[in-house]
Amino acid sequence: MASKGEDQFKKIISHCKEYGFIYPSSEIYDGLSAVYDYGPNGAELKNNIKDYWWKSMVQHHENIVGLDAAIFMHPTVWKASGHLEAFNDPLIDNKDSKKRYRADILIEDYIAKLEDKIQKEVEKAAKRFGEKFDEKMFRETNPRVMANREKIESINSRFVKAMEEERLDDVKALIEELGIACPVSGSKNWTEVRQFNLMFNTKMGSLSDGANEVYLRPETAQGIFVNYLNVQKTSRMKLPFGIAQVGKAFRNEIVARQFIFRMREFEQMEMQYFVTPGQEKEWFEYWKKERMRWHLAMGIPEKFFRVHEHEKLAHYANAAVDIEFWFPFGLKELEGVHSRTDFDLGAHQKFSGKKLQYFDPETNKSYVPYVVETSIGLDRMFLAILSYAYNEEKLEDGSERVVMNIPPALAPVKVAVLPLLKKDGLPEKAREIFDRLKYDFNCHYEEKDAIGRRYRRQDAIGTPYCITIDHDTLKDNSVTIRERDSMEQDRIPIEKISAVVAERIDIRPKK
Ligand code: GAP
Fold first, then answer.
1. Could you tell me if 103 and 7 lie in one domain?
2. Mean pLDDT throughout 281-292?
3. Residue with CA nearest ligand 1 atom 8
4. Could you tell me the pTM of the whole model?
5. Residue 192 lies in a domain
6. In the sheet where 241-250 sits, what is the strand order?
7. Which among 415, 425, 429 has a CA at the least distance from the CA of 477?
8. What pLDDT digit, counting tens, does each position of 65-103 carry?
9. Whose CA is nearest to atom 16 of ligand 1?
10. Is residue 453 part of a domain?
């Protein structure tokens, strides 16, 4: 699958603004870079994603409990976690445009162009060979594809090695050797590469008291680690068990771009699963599958996702995958599943001087559990859904519509209640229906404009069902239910609306 492209991405961004999904933050002051506000439809969609995640992690797993930890944490937390020392991005400036870039992203973009070339070769060959085309064999034997693949691998391994050995001079040399130019000035006149810490800091308490430097958390996970024993004891949990949390995280991203893909203030949905050492690989495999199942259960086709196994692992991990998604600007990380060993709990035990061990009643032994983490950005998931859902369709009658094929269970508005006309008692009957349905679903009532225009407006915000009240409704208490994607209409009794909608938007696995 290929991405929908930059044009489509621009349309999605303006659609988000026009239909109240997302606005630039403080827009009347020209906005704040990489910070966004969610409008009425955006807030609903975001809450629905959060709710879907929370229910499947906490409610559907007897051994996972929730937590809501504070954003501010003791400053030593960030020493122990390694964020103070190593949560850095390598940055580089172009001397002519004075623009600042992330060195790794310049290299990543260069690699993405090589990936694009490979993809184009594959598509060309697929067209040429038709049904006989064997993509795997083509990728493994075509000389141009192989040459580009080798080039990608050599760039990747040189970059990873340079970063591991903290050889920032070699990162600069790589950028120069690849002939990477500044997209703004077109020049290759680069400064040295420097490390830049991504944590925001501020002061807590008044300066006269000798205020403490504190940080806005760059990930929610540390709130879970430092509370692990509190939760284990108060909830009487036995290994394996998990702690789940949804909350804000902050990163002073150097290159904040691609809309809500990379933000400075964002939300994460993270779960740390505490396991007996030695069982982590098994649980890592479980969570990898389970998280993919979660994504697919919404009905987004599998071709939008790719599971990318990390070859080079962070020093604290013994297995890691990214669940990637085809965003309009390419295949990018959506979620990470990491087997983090006892690195975090071990570090907190050392820095706090407090024992963070688990007493295993079966073996009568105490040990620091290992952790398997699932971590997904709520905003990034939101963008993935929008990227999949935004579609422009040409209809049989020659007209066009923009439809958001948002998975029905997540749609901001589930049902729109629409009287066909603004007279003859139809609005009164429609209000009666609306007042009943609003206890079951988030509903819209709309009577302005012709019915066709009202359908289009609901399509544009992704409302899966429209209920139309007409003159027959007054006679036989039946309504028309219109389905967003197929635009098909059925006639159903008023008393069945709630059950019909509930059944159609249900996300439960079908028996
Ligand atoms: N606790 C592990 C952790 O934070 P990460 O890969 O840095 O790992 C996890 O972040 C997820 O958080 C990412 O997969 C992404 O979905 C989301 N994320 C990270 N940085 C982000 C940003 N600047 N803006 C939006 N989402 C972000």
1. no
2. 97
3. 375
4. 0.89
5. yes
6. 64-66, 241-250, 265-275, 370-377, 330-339, 319-327, 305-309
7. 429
8. 999 999 999 999 999 999 999 899 999 999 999 999 999
9. 377
10. yes
Containing H/E element for 93? strand 88-93
Is the pLDDT confidence value at 333 over 80?
A: yes
Q: Is 265 exposed, middle or buried (0-12, 13-18, 19+ CB in 10 A)?
A: middle
Could you tell me the distance, in angstroms and rounded to a whole number, from the CA of residue 504 to the centre of ligand 1? 33
Same domain, 226 and 372: yes
Range 131-136 average pLDDT = 90
Q: What are phi and psi of 197, to 5 degrees?
A: -80, 135
Length of the chain, please?
A: 511
274 and 381 in a single domain? The answer is yes
Q: What is the mean pLDDT of the chain?
A: 94
Q: What is the mean pLDDT of residues 378-397?
A: 96
The residue whose CA has the least distance to atom 2 of ligand 1 is 375
For residue 253, being part of any structural domain is answered with: yes
Q: How far is the CA of 82 from the centre of ligand 1 (A)?
A: 16
Q: Are 387 and 325 in contact (CB under 8 A)?
A: yes
Interval between CA 214 and ligand 1 midpoint (Å): 21
Residue 134 and residue 216 in one domain:
no
Provide the pairing of β-strand 415-419 with 465-469: parallel
- How much distance in Å is there from the Cα of 376 to the middle of ligand 1? 6
What single string gives the DSSP state of each residue in 497-510?
HHHHHHHHT--SPP
Are 291 and 397 contained in the same domain?
yes
Ligand 1 pocket (Cβ < 6 Å) reads 219, 221, 251, 253, 262-263, 266, 268, 270, 333-336, 373, 375-377, 379-380
Residue 18 domain boundaries: 1-74+211-404
Question: Which residue, of 150, 168, 197, is where some domain finishes?
Answer: 197
Say whether both 162 and 183 belong to one domain: yes
Residues 380, 113: contact at Cβ < 8 Å? no
Extract the tokens encoding 347: 């570090």
Spatial contact of 88 and 104, defined as CB atoms under 8 Å apart: no
Q: Can you give the CATH number for the domain in which 298 is found?
A: 3.30.930.10
Distance 249 CA to ligand 1 centre (A): 9
Ligand 1 pocket check: which of 333, 343, 387 to mutate, most ligand atoms within 8 Å of Cβ? Answer: 333
Cβ(187)–Cβ(78) below 8 Å: no
| Number of compact structural domains in the chain | 3
Residue having the nearest C-alpha atom to atom 22 of ligand 1 = 262
User: Does some domain include residue 455?
Assistant: yes
Residue 377 CA to ligand 1 center (angstroms) comes to 5
User: Taking residues 471-486, what's their average pLDDT?
Assistant: 96
Single-letter amino acid code for the residue at 121: E
Domain end, chosen from 360, 387, 404, is at 404
Q: Are residues 379 and 423 in the same domain?
A: no
SS3 state of residue 326:
strand
Question: Is 251 in the same domain as 365?
Answer: yes
